[in-house]
Amino acid sequence: MYRFSLFSLLFLCSGWLVAQTPWETPADRKAKLSTVAFTEQGQTLGKELYQTNCKSCHGDPGKNNVIRLVPLPPDPASVQLQQNSDGSLHYKISEGRGLMPAFKNVLSAEYIWDVISYLRTYNKDYKQQLAVKPTAGGEVFDKVDLKLERDSGHSGVVVQLTGMKGALVKPIPGLEVKLFARRYFGFQVVGKPVDTNAEGMARFEIPKSLPGDSSGNVLLVAQLSDEELFGPVKAESLLAIGLPVYRPPLNEQRALWNVGQKAPIWLLIVYLSVVFIVWGFIFFILFQLRAIFKLGELK
Prior knowledge:
Layout: H1 2-20, H2 27-30, H3 40-53, H4 55-58, H5 79-82, H6 86-95, H7 109-119, E1 135-136, E2 139-140, E3 143-150, E4 156-165, E5 168-171, E6 176-183, E7 186-189, E8 194-195, E9 201-205, E10 217-224, H8 227-230, E11 234-240, H9 265-298
Antiparallel strand pairs: 1-2, 3-4, 4-5, 4-9, 6-7, 6-8, 6-10, 10-11
Helix pairs in contact: 3-7, 6-7
């Protein structure tokens, strides 16, 4: 009882201290803007993400049914939340504080913008400001694009980074690119980040030990390291570049979760044994009743 009370006191004190400390946003993050316009599609996705990750504490927007924590989570439709700049909201959702988790570990920067686009639907005076168009090497581009393909003649892949300025397409040098391989539960980093050369190309060597499917296919994902500036710029490609690995399906071998024909042998033996014992006991009872009935007829 004493330990629980002490823990509760420390918990309330830490929450009170957080509540008394203003949640400041760094100037560069406060002025951050989305490079993509908020759309109805993004707001719909943002609503789903909010319902999954935020509603349990912040409640239904405009209903003031937030969970009673210290400090109190703001209602999304309240002035307290809506007075934050887009950059401040992005920073606070990403980094978290106190009881609010850092959602940068759960949601991508793009998904966080979708959540913000949904929150802004509860502010009738809000007008979105877009970030300036992506720049690289002092040039402004309408769009930045990545392409990922097999590096002919080499045991690796090549990533091509280009910027589009109207109808003109130019290579972008000097930007860092990261490469990932899709795994069951996320992504595996492949090698170290590589800067694009003068032709806007970054080459990656693929380890011979990188596992693929039974045909050696690996889903590779290339992505710019500077996601904060350019947004979600990435490229995906399924390439036969890995080590062929056969992974038997879960229903191939005998197992508890499989169909009856592939049930474990021991389970079949136990099941049949129990059935025989139960039916044997039933027949034994019937034979005993028959014997008693015949003894009654003799008398």
